[in-house]
Structure to design on (327 residues):
C-alpha cells in the first residue's frame, strides 16, 4: 500500500472514530432536528375540559412547556408526578404548562386527568396535525418554548423533574437578560 | 411521389401522432398525488416504512394532512417542505443529495472511487523484472548447480 493510501486509511478511521464519539455523547432524548430553534407553530385547539379553546397566542411572552401525551401511554403516567410538581411550583408565574392530547379519545383523556388530578390546561389535537407540526414522534414529548416564542428544547420520552426544572430555569434566565 | 412513398409517409405521420398522444402529460388526480407524496415520506414511528405502507396512527395522521394540503391547493414541494420543517430531511425516504443525510449516499461512491484509484495505481506499477547478474555470480550459480547434480 502506498503512503497516500495509508494516510487515507488513517484519516478514514479517525473520521469514523470522531463521528461515533460525537454521536454517542449526544443525549438521545434531546433531538435537535426539525423545529428546535424555530418559532413554535401556532395552534388553537379545543380544550379537554370545557367548551373553550387553548391557543398558544394567549401565552405570548411567557415560557411555555408543551407536553404531548395520551392516556394509554405508560411513560406518560411515569412522568406525570414531575409535571404535577412543575405545575405546582410555577403556577401563576411567567411559566405555563400546556398538555396536548393526541392519538387518544377525549373521554379517555378526561378520565385520565380526573384520576391523576391534573389541573393544567389541556387541549385535544384530534387529527394529530399540531403534533405533526411540532415534529412529534409519539407520546410523551415535551417542548420548551421561550418567551420569544422560539422552541428552545425538546425532550423525547418521559421527562424527569430535574430536566423540567433545568429547561424552565434556563429559559427564565434568558428571558430576564 | 409514388403511391408507395405516400403510404409510408402517411404511416409515419400516424405513428408519430399516436406516440405523441400516448406520451402526452396525463392529468394526475388528487388521490394519486396523495399516494405519491405519502410514498416519499418516512413513517416516524416505523422501521424503514413509508407513510403509504404503514398502518400506524401517526402514518394515518400524516396521510390525512397530505390529503388536506392537496385539497387546499398546495404544491407537492410545499407539502414536502412542511414535513421537512417539522422533522428535518430525515422525513424524506430519499433525502436531497446535498444534505448531511444525503452525504451518506455519497460515501459508497467515494469508497468505490478510492478502490478504483488503488487498483489503477497497482496496474500502472512496473512489473518485477529479473535482476541482471554479473558473470562472476553466474559462474558461482553454475558451480552450485553442478555440485548438486549427481
Amino acid at each position: 500500500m502506498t503512503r497516500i493510501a495509508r494516510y487515507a486509511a488513517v484519516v478514514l478511521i479517525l473520521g469514523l472514530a470522531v463521528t461515533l464519539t460525537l454521536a454517542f455523547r449526544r443525549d438521545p432524548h434531546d433531538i435537535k432536528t426539525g423545529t428546535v430553534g424555530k418559532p413554535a407553530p401556532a395552534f388553537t385547539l379545543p380544550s379537554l375540559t370545557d367548551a373553550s379553546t387553548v391557543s398558544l397566542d394567549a401565552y405570548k411572552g411567557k415560557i411555555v412547556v408543551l407536553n404531548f401525551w395520551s392516556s394509554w401511554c405508560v411513560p406518560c403516567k411515569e412522568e406525570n408526578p414531575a409535571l404535577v410538581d412543575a405545575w405546582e411550583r410555577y403556577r401563576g408565574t411567567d411559566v405555563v404548562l400546556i398538555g396536548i392530547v393526541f392519538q387518544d379519545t377525549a373521554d379517555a383523556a378526561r378520565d385520565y386527568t380526573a384520576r391523576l388530578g391534573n389541573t393544567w390546561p389541556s387541549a385535544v389535537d384530534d387529527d394529530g396535525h399540531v403534533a405533526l407540526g411540532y415534529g412529534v414522534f409519539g407520546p410523551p414529548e415535551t417542548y420548551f418554548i421561550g418567551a420569544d416564542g422560539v422552541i428552545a428544547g425538546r425532550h423525547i420520552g418521559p421527562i424527569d423533574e430535574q430536566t423540567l426544572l433545568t429547561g424552565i430555569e434556563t429559559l427564565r434566565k434568558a428571558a430576564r437578560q | 411521389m409514388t403511391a408507395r412513398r405516400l403510404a409510408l409517409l402517411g404511416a409515419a405521420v400516424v405513428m408519430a401522432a399516436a406516440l405523441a398522444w400516448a406520451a402526452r402529460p396525463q392529468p394526475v388526480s388528487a388521490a394519486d398525488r396523495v399516494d405519491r407524496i405519502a410514498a416519499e415520506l418516512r413513517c416516524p414511528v416505523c422501521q424503514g416504512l413509508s407513510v403509504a405502507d404503514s398502518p400506524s396512527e401517526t402514518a394515518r395522521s400524516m396521510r390525512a394532512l397530505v390529503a388536506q394540503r392537496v385539497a387546499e391547493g398546495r404544491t407537492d414541494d410545499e407539502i414536502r417542505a412542511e414535513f421537512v420543517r417539522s422533522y428535518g430531511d430525515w422525513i424524506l425516504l430519499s433525502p436531497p443529495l446535498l444534505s448531511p443525510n444525503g452525504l451518506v449516499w455519497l460515501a459508497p461512491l467515494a469508497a468505490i472511487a478510492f478502490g478504483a484509484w488503488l487498483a489503477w495505481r497497482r496496474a500502472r506499477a512496473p512489473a518485477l523484472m529479473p535482476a541482471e547478474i554479473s558473470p562472476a555470480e553466474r559462474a558461482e550459480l553454475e558451480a552450485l548447480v553442478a555440485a548438486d547434480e549427481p
